[in-house]
């Protein structure tokens, strides 16, 4: 679509208009759990099934996580459709993920007949009130004539500025209305370029620096944008860190890569960033996790930060930068590369120091017992295709692949920056559907798997074959860690009784493996991949090794000294 009003001027139902509006916005995938509140939309999607791949899921949270993964990977709004009341409530966690992760997403919610509003009718919810703190915009369509207008607006809002989720409620009788209106395509909006003096001023600050660090974050990066910021960093020999769960933004094997800032970060990297005299923060909001609980810089005073973000409201929200640049991340990176040819820089030893810290951090320690998960992961890394897509859940287990594996340039890494458990399995399935043929590896803990693990059924139905690595230590590990720090030895409500995860996937007709020793992970992966089926590799971890840096015994000893 070229942005002009197009479509056939003929009578269509609201449900047909909604389906055609998705086509007009360039939607290729949609994820849903069916409900009677949007039967007419489903009928409309039947007419465009050659244009939109509709994936039927088992749980609304799973459907939205799949759509969110699609939005993260493509930069185009992911689309999820759920029914009213309980369906919308189940979906809300995915909306929260998309909001905090800045992922473009459009959630369509079937609604009650609008004539019954305010009667506390069956499954009635006011979605404007419910979703207003979680979404960029919430609207409801009660007049089918406004479907093209409001759907176009929903997609514009989802992808503009700081991307995020939009919720569109569709009343039941509206979907049956027959009206004669035209479709509306996307608005042809050019990206926001940095102001004329922005890059020269940034380069002045860089010329005066002795210990600079480039920190990358955010979403909406294109291949061109990532390549441009990579080339700039290498040409100027800048050390590069990535924000929390943004490991796919820079090649982890590069001599310029210093590590990730977030939960479980290398304390040495955190110390070096605090020592830095110029932090060029591109895309990152410098949120709580990335800023180590808002401790990287002093609050309430100007810090040596150049913050680049597409939404001016995010610049200086917590930390006052010495320079803020409002710009599309990709446009900024391309302009920066073009306007800053490489030249000798005085901070070569500083960059080497940060890289040496990263290499020391990823060196696998000795762990007690037959399974050294760090070494097993590093052996697995060598087996994976160069375009592997990784997804992770929330939990201590995620710090193992984040610390000990290097995400390479052509690989992708998806994780919920809001700490949502139950994210990894459905997002991995969404990634596999979005990029059919690419290897997807989903890391998840035993607690998170049993929140949305039933979505493995969707993988069979969609004919994709992600490999899920379930790290099983029989507990809610992160909460147990905090429990031991504050109430050592008083274990309450954090232990789990788990099934045989390998047999769980076998019940669906998939491939199951169990790993208890270091050398078993790579052969298990090889067999799982060769099977061509959705697979689960259950890694049975020691409950004692609560993190990759501490045991429960060590935490209790530290608490006793405090």
Give an overview of the whole structure.
With 562 residues, this protein is α/β, with parallel strands linked by helices. It has three domains: 5-184, Rossmann fold (3-Layer(aba) Sandwich), CATH 3.40.50; 198-360, Rossmann fold, CATH 3.40.50.1220; 364-561, Thiamin diphosphate (ThDP)-binding fold, Pyr/PP domains (Rossmann fold, 3-Layer(aba) Sandwich). The chain contains 20 helices and 22 strands. The strands form five sheets. A six-stranded parallel sheet has the order 4-3-5-6-8-7, sandwiched between helices. Strands 13-12-11-14-15-16 form a six-stranded parallel sheet. The protein has a six-stranded parallel sheet with strand order 18-17-19-20-22-21, sandwiched between helices. Helix 8 (223-235) runs parallel beside helix 10 (329-339). The longest helix is centred in the N-terminal third of the chain and has 16 residues, at 86-101. Residues 1-9 have low confidence and may be disordered.
């Amino acid at each position: 679509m070229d942005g002009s009003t197009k479509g056939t001027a003929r009578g269509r139902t609201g449900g047909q208009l909604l389906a055609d509006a998705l086509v007009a916005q360039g939607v290729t995938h949609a994820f849903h759990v069916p409900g009677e509140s949007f039967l007419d939309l489903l009928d409309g999607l039947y007419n465009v099934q050659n244009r939109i791949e509709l994936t039927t899921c088992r749980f609304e949270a799973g459907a939205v996580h799949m759509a969110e993964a699609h939005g993260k990977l493509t930069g185009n709004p992911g689309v999820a459709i759920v029914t009213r009341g309980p369906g919308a409530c189940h979906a809300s966690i995915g909306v929260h993920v998309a909001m905090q992760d800045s992922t473009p997403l459009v959630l369509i919610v079937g609604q009650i007949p609008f004539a019954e509003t305010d009667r506390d009718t069956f499954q009635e919810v006011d979605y404007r009130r419910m979703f207003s703190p979680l979404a960029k915009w919430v609207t409801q369509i009660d007049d089918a004539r406004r479907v093209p207008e409001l759907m176009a607006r929903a997609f514009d809002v989802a992808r503009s500025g700081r991307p995020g989720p939009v919720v569109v409620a569709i009343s039941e009788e509206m979907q049956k209305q027959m009206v004669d209106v035209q479709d509306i395509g996307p608005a042809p909006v050019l990206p926001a370029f940095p102001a004329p003096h922005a890059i020269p001023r940034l380069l002045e600050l860089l010329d005066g620096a002795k210990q600079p660090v480039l920190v990358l974050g955010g979403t909406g990066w294109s291949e061109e944008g990532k390549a441009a910021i990579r080339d700039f960093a290498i040409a100027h020999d800048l050390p590069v860190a990535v924000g929390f769960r943004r490991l796919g933004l820079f090649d982890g094997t590069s001599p310029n890569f210093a590590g990730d800032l977030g939960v479980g970060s290398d304390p040495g990297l955190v110390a070096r960033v605090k020592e830095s005299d110029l932090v060029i923060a591109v895309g990152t909001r410098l949120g709580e996790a990335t800023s180590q609980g808002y401790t990287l810089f002093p609050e309430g005073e100007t810090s040596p930060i150049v913050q680049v973000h597409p939404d001016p409201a995010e610049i200086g929200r917590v930390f006052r930068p010495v320079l803020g640049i409002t710009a599309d991340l990709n446009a900024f990176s391309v302009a920066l590369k073009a306007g800053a040819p490489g030249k000798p820089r005085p901070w070569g030893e500083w960059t080497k120091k940060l890289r040496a810290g990263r290499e020391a951090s990823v060196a696998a320690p000795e762990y007690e017992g037959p399974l050294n998960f760090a070494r097993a992961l590093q052996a697995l890394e060598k087996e994976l295709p160069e375009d592997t897509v990784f997804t992770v859940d929330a939990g201590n287990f995620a710090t193992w692949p984040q610390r000990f594996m290097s995400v390479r340039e052509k690989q992708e890494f998806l994780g919920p920056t809001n700490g949502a458990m139950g994210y990894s399995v459905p997002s991995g399935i969404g990634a596999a559907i979005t990029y059919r043929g690419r290897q997807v590896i989903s890391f998840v803990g035993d607690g998170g798997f049993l929140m949305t693990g039933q979505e493995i059924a969707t993988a069979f139905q969609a004919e994709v074959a992600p490999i899920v690595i379930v790290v099983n230590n029989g507990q809610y590990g992160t909460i147990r860690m905090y429990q031991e720090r504050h109430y050592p030895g008083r274990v309450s409500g954090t232990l789990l009784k788990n099934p045989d995860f390998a047999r769980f996937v076998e019940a669906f007709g998939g491939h199951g493996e169990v790993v208890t020793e270091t050398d078993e992970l790579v052969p298990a992966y090889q067999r799982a991949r060769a099977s061509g089926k959705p697979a689960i590799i259950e890694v049975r971890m020691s409950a004692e090794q609560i993190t990759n840096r501490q045991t429960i015994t060590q935490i209790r000893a530290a608490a006793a000294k405090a």
